[in-house]
Specification:
By secondary structure, this protein is mostly helical. The chain contains six helices and two strands; from the N terminus they run H-H-E-H-E-H-H-H. It folds into two domains: 87 residues, no CATH class; 37 residues.
């Protein structure tokens, strides 16, 4: 395992002491710590469900990511979200993105549901018609969301 550089260890210790004394780290503090970490070693960051934040929250996240990327070109960021934010990602992180669409088919969703239903801890709570309805309606409604 790689040893953490002293300046990074110090930054984390400083933030922990501040949090203990009543002040949580601010976004700027977190960005500075991430910049310290990412300048000394290749780093992969994952931000899941970016679409679930508000537009203001996403704006702040994109600004912070740009700051990190400017200091640390070796950083790789993996972001998940629904398709409607793709344009926002490409605009805010212009020239620094590659997009890949991943979506579940209706058959994928049906197979997932079938497996989950087969391990139901209360099998007597569902009859065959309810299971059939679940296997029909959920994939119809979910196929556009799971992207």
């Amino acid at each position: 395992m790689e040893r953490i550089p002293e300046e990074i260890s110090w930054a984390f210790q400083d933030q922990r002491e501040n949090a203990i004394s009543g002040r949580k780290p601010r976004l700027g503090d977190i960005v500075k710590m991430l910049q310290l970490i990412t300048t000394s070693q290749r780093t992969f960051m994952c931000i899941d469900a970016l679409d679930e934040g508000t537009a203001v929250q996403r704006f702040r996240i994109f600004d912070s990511l740009k700051e990190i990327l400017e200091m640390s070109p070796g950083v790789r960021i993996f972001v998940t979200g629904r398709p409607h934010i793709r344009a926002e990602i490409e605009t805010r992180l212009a020239g620094r993105t590659t997009s890949v669409s991943v979506s579940a088919t209706k058959d994928d969703i049906r197979r997932f549901l079938h497996v989950r239903l087969s391990v139901d801890e209360t099998p007597d709570a569902m009859d065959e018609s309810l299971e059939a309805e679940i296997l029909e309606k959920i994939p119809e409604n979910m196929s556009e969301m799971c992207v």
